[in-house]
Amino acid sequence: MVCLPSLKSGGSPPRICLFEEPCLVAGGQRRTLPDGARRLVAFTAVHGGRVERRHAAGVLWPVGDDLRAAGNLRSALWRLRAAGIDVLDADKRLIWIRDGVVVDAVLVARWTACLTAGGAMPAGTDEAYWRHSRGGLLPGWSEAWVRPHRERLRQRVLHAMESLARRLVAEGDAVRATAVARQVCAAEPLRESTHRILAEALRRAGRPVEARAAYAAFRSAAARRFGPAAGATIRVAPAKTRGEPRSRTPGGSGR
Predict the structure, then answer these.
(1) In sequence order, what DSSP letters do the residues of 182-201 get, joined into one string?
(2) 11 pLDDT tier (thresholds 50, 70, 90)
């Protein structure tokens, strides 16, 4: 069992939050990051917590020359210090997240790694991290440097939840597996691997009709999105549960 810090505000180390408008949660209080410094904190956080000053300045303030970009970066650091928000340290070459400050995106990445590796988490942890991250990294931000980090982490979260659902099926917890798989299917409706897990979970929960209906709905959605040919290639339907009545053919007795 891997212990991850709680995502609740009380009793946790100072935390930079990136799954909403960037802010700092510390001492049970939520503090807004100053204008002009918000992007620098987010940029440093999503790039592993340590960046070169010149690179950060060039990406965040591309208009103008290097001297102007460097001046904007110094102003951003000054605004943080003036606001009493000590989350970044810097020297002449580098900027980094201060020791003792955690980043929620890093915690989410650690959680996904644990689930994907088959690790067990304390009760309620999976649901808490899923709720926290499902809105996406830096929602509403359109900068080019944000998009690959957002999509990479989104895929890691979906893959981790899919791994959790698969493990729950194997452990015989079909009810919870169904709930987890449905959450992933809702987030990414055309993810075939998760629809297969959902169908298997429903079947093991004694709901074979729902299992076939769920998979048929996925095939129809794929056909609508990618064309009839795409839907037709998805031919492997969920296997029947032992003892399930055989389907009747038109005009036949089903024997």
Answers:
(1) HHHHHHSTT-HHHHHHHHHH
(2) low
pLDDT digits (tens, 9 = 90+) for 226-254: 887 665 555 544 555 444 444 333 334 34
User: How far is Cα 140 from Cα 146, in angstroms, rounded to an integer?
Assistant: 10
**Structure token digits, residue 104:** 């929620």
What distance lies between CA 140 and its chain's CA centroid?
15
> What beta strand segments (E) does the chain contain?
15-17, 23-26, 29-32, 50-52, 88-90, 94-97, 102-103
* Identity of residue 55: H
The Cα 183–Cα 173 span in angstroms is: 16
pTM of the predicted model over 0.90: no
* Cα–Cα distance, 255 to 241 (Å, whole number): 17
- Bridge partners, residue 51, by sequence: 95
Spatial distance between the Cα atoms of 104 and 153, rounded to a whole number of angstroms: 12
How does strand 15-17 pair with strand 102-103?
parallel
Alpha-carbon distance of 202 to 182, in angstroms, equals 10
Dihedral of alpha carbons 27, 33, 34, 38, sign: positive
Between the CA of residue 19 and those of 108, 131, 135, 205, what are the distances in Å?
Answer: 10, 10, 7, 34
Number of C-beta neighbours around residue 154 at 10 A: 16
Contacts of 98 (CB under 8 A, 6+ apart): 86, 87, 88, 89
